[in-house]
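Hey team,

Filing this mostly as a record. A colleague (T.K.) asked me to run one chain through the structure pipeline before their review meeting, and I want the input and output archived in the tracker in case anyone asks later how it was produced. No errors, nothing strange. Just documentation.

Input sequence:
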Amino acid sequence: MKLVSYRTSGADSFGIWRDDGIVDLKGKIAGGGATLRSLLDKLDAVAPFAANAPDLAHDAVDLLPPVIDPPKLLCVGLNYKTHIAETGRDAPAHPILFPRYPSSLVGAGEDLVRPKVSHDFDFEGELAFVVGRGGRHISEADALDHVAGYACFNDGSIRDWQRHTTQFMPGKSFWRSGSFGPWLVTPDEVGDLGSLSLTTRLNGEVMQQATLDDLLFGVPALVAYISTILPLEPGDVVATGTTGGVGLFRKPPVWMKPGDRVEVEIEGLGILSNGIVDEA
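Output structure:
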């Protein structure tokens, strides 16, 4: 299934994206709440609705990030071997984690915002996963049983602010600087993650390309590591890091600017496409 959150006629809802439209799920499943997060631990109950006739046409909605209210939104730094190589740094012994915040993300089709204070606006195409079943001290062997689905993610980065201190967060949470979507794909439709290709394009030109087996710490290792620190909850989002080819390390550097279009595509997970505008 492809699960989406969206806005239509001024109201937010969520449902299943089908080729011929959207099946709305709000209020239809016992125990469900106001957002998609409330159903991520009930996907067995959601699956039968995928056969229903659509309630909405695709062009009747504006897509939001698949999970609009994650309890935690964590990103992983320096987690692709090609990206580690281009930075000239040693591979970390443990995952490098930092937070983003929901206000820093937009959905597919919405514009990313280059802030007034910097023009060093970089792209980072990534795989994100979303927790469906929570837990603490989850083993790597059991980790994938806790994943509700996968999506494309653009960890848009304001590079000069990222380098203000040794902590990454200042450059990683500017308002509407990143994106997430277009939908969340359930694991049964994804198959072997390692064989999937990730591509980031800027104005149609390929900037980043790698298969997901280039990850230093894969999804099971990340689930195990993070759940050792604190309990994972349904709706937690983890962006797993970017591959080589970011704008910062190109010569000269390549920054996103107003009028540009950036696309993150992961085989089987769709295309996350966003324009770029300046902060008003």
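Quick notes for T.K.: Residues 73-278 form a domain with the Fumarylacetoacetate hydrolase; domain 2 fold (CATH 3.90.850.10). Helices lie at 43-46, 81-87, 159-162, 219-229.
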